[in-house]
Each structure stands twice: as structure tokens, then as C-alpha cells.
Design brief:
It is built from one helix and eleven strands. The protein is mainly β. It has a single domain, classed as Immunoglobulin-like. The strands form three sheets. A four-stranded antiparallel β-sheet has the order 1-2-8-5. It has a four-stranded antiparallel β-sheet with strand order 6-7-3-10, with no helix packed on it. Strands 4-9-11 form a three-stranded antiparallel β-sheet. Strand 1 and strand 2 (about 35-45) form a beta hairpin. About 20% of the residues are buried.
Amino acid sequence: MIRLFTIFLLLHFSAFAQSDKKVSWEFTAVKKNKNQYEVRITANIAPGWHLYSQQQPADAIALPTIIQFAKHPLIEMKGAVREVGKVIDQVDPATKSRSRYYAGTVSFIQLVQLKKTLKTNLSGDIEFMVCDDKQCLPPGKVKFSVKL
């Protein structure tokens, strides 16, 4: 029984790690004015694979990309996270349902305002799923921290 459970865990974590290999992430912050920054999260997606948008049709099977920022008492989010890239909105061959996704690259942009002039970090995590035309990998999760 223990051996079977160990094999299951190894397979699960092996598949989980594969999601990370299909997408590489870059995290940057650009100062817009005294206390305002544009945080840019860029996904570079491996050829033949795609990453799902944050917004999916109601009947979509695909899991959307979810970006969660850690609460910080001195940082205020301004508006929603914007997506910059060429979105594909069609029936996804892997899920056989209508989906919104990106191939190649996409940037997720969040405007943030510091309540005081100081140096700090904005951290959080991203949950995402990648698919090709035949299969989807188990969802992946990446933690990040960006200097402001």
C-alpha cells in the first residue's frame, strides 16, 4: 500500500513539474511616477503549447490563469490585471470546448500604488494550465516576488 501511494505521489509531482517546463515566467516592475509601478508578469510558452486566459467562457473546461497577489498594507492594486498578447478565442482541440488562450507569449500587467515612498516587494503566486492540441498537463503553480 505504501509503495502504491509513493508511486502515485511521484507520478503526480512529475506531471506537476512538467507544467513548469512548458512556460517560463519573467517578473519586472517599471516605475511610472513617484509611488506608482507597473508590474509585468510575462509568460513565455513553449512551441506547440498554449496557456489559458484569466477570463474563460462560462462553459469552458480549461482552468483559467489565476494571479493572486499577497496582501501588503502599503500596496494598493489599481484596477484589474490586464492581459497583453494575441488571444485566441476558439474551440480548443485539447478540451473540445470554447476557450481563450495564448501561444508564444503573453504579459499580465497590474498597476500598483505605494501608500508611502519606500522600497518593498510585491509577492504572490500564479496558478495556470497548459495544453497542446492533444493533451493538458496538470495545473502548475509558481510563486513570485518583484522589487518595487
